[in-house]
């Protein structure tokens, strides 16, 4: 008997026992293994909540870069930060499209709070580390993605986040 036949037999036997003794679990080890496999597969896949969090992060970063661009020290720095903000908005739109393709629903993400920038350089330094972190997260998410297009999108965004970190680094070097 093949494994498919054994699984079918197990299901039939389980259904019979559930009718006779509903509280009895005739195959506890099989249930534990199935639950463990289901849990592992959930951990290995990128979910809709992950995408929603990424959208929210991108929108928050957009607002932060736009606020930073208004406080830039030079026109070139202001343009540079505004372009990073525009790229973050583009990431958010692409992730919204991926979310819609994955779920068939339009994402409902709360509007991010407008950032208060007390110290320009501290905020920029914090954004540098956020870009590095985002780069790593997107690469990890790309490994979990089942859809090839979503995987390519996440890898592309990861590369752009690394480029943003390089741009911020160069702004510190110019200082």
Number of helices: 6
Give the quaternary arrangement of the chains.
Answer: single chain
Q: Report the C-alpha radius of gyration, rounded.
A: 24 Å
The counted number of beta strands is: 0
Largest sheet: none
Strand content: under 5%
Q: In angstroms, what separates the terminal alpha carbons?
A: 73 Å
The structure class reads: mainly alpha
Element string (H = helix, E = strand):
HHHHHH
Low-confidence stretches: none
Q: Quick check: average pLDDT?
A: 84
Q: What share of residues is helical?
A: over 70%
Task: Give the overall shape.
Answer: elongated
Task: Note the topology.
Elements: H1 3-20, H2 28-44, H3 48-70, H4 75-103, H5 120-144, H6 148-174
Helix pairs in contact: 3-4, 4-6, 5-6
Describe the structure.
There is one protein chain. The chain has helices at residues 3-20, 28-44, 48-70, 75-103, 120-144, 148-174. The N and C termini lie far apart (73 Å). It is elongated, with a radius of gyration of 24 Å. The protein contains six helices and no strands. By secondary structure, the chain is an all-alpha fold.
Structural descriptors:
about 0% strand, mainly alpha, elongated, 6 helices, about 180 residues
Write a compact overview of the structure shown.
With 175 residues, the chain is mainly α. 79% of the residues lie in helices and 0% in strands.
């Amino acid at each position: 008997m093949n494994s498919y036949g054994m699984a079918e037999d197990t299901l039939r036997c389980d259904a019979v026992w559930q009718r006779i003794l509903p509280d009895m679990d005739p195959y506890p080890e099989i249930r534990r293994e199935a639950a463990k496999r289901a849990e592992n597969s959930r951990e290995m896949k990128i979910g809709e909540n992950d995408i929603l969090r990424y959208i929210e992060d991108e929108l928050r970063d957009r607002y932060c870069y736009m606020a930073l661009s208004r406080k830039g020290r030079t026109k070139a720095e202001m343009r540079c930060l505004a372009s990073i903000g525009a790229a973050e908005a583009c990431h958010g739109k692409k992730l919204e499209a991926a979310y819609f393709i994955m779920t068939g629903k339009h994402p409902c993400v709360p509007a991010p709070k407008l950032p208060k920038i007390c110290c320009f350089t501290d905020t920029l330094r914090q954004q540098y580390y956020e870009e590095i972190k985002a780069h790593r997260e997107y690469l990890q998410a790309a490994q979990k993605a089942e859809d090839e297009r979503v995987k390519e999108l996440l890898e592309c965004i990861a590369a752009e986040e690394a480029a943003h970190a390089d741009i911020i680094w160069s702004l510190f070097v110019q200082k």
